[in-house]
């Protein structure tokens, strides 16, 4: 019987193979995400904020499959707010996900449907279970690249709209050189 090598390699903060799909977001793609929109506008619109490499072994929306992703989030700040991913609920809200830290340091910001927001520290080896019905985004609080892995059900989908319009109820800000979660209404 045959033993094959699919050359699908996940190692040292990179995901490689011919089936890997890459995407990225630059600062202009993150319009309206940060509190200080003026500060974001004053920055280079093409500056890379993060890259995502994914393995989609089945079609999006398939029940019973899993997707795998590696996100590389660059360090930086817009005003006093750390660079972060857009953040989303899953479109199929009753779908959970795992994240885990690989390189760098940051905070996983989570918000439930009641609008309660909390954070979990991310660092190499940290493992994070994101329950269903919980929105998730990651902020890079360090000076170097933050890489993290993700694994989620192939029928989860993404609801970016709710976060784009309502945001998270708290933001991760640099307060005197330390990351702090502050209410978005302040
Ligand atoms: C997908 C998973 C990650 C994110 C990635 C970018 O469910 O949570 O692969 O897509 O970290 O974040 P976002 O919020 O821009 O999709
Ligand atoms: Zn997700």
Describe the structure.
This protein has two helices and 15 strands. The chain has a single domain (9-183), classed as Sandwich (Jelly Rolls). The radius of gyration is 17 Å and the shape is globular. The strands form five sheets. A six-stranded antiparallel sheet has the order 3-4-5-13-8-11, with no helix packed on it. By secondary structure, it is mainly β. It is 6% helix and 45% strand. It starts with 8 loop residues before the first strand and ends with a strand. The structure holds D-sorbitol-6-phosphate and zinc ion. Zinc ion (ZN) is lined by residues 88, 90, 97, 136, 152. Residues 52, 69, 71, 85-88, 97, 137, 150, 152, 158 line the site of D-sorbitol-6-phosphate.
List keywords for this structure.
single chain; 186 residues; mainly beta; Jelly Rolls; 3-stranded antiparallel sheet; 15 strands; 6% helix; 45% strand; globular; binds D-sorbitol-6-phosphate; binds zinc ion
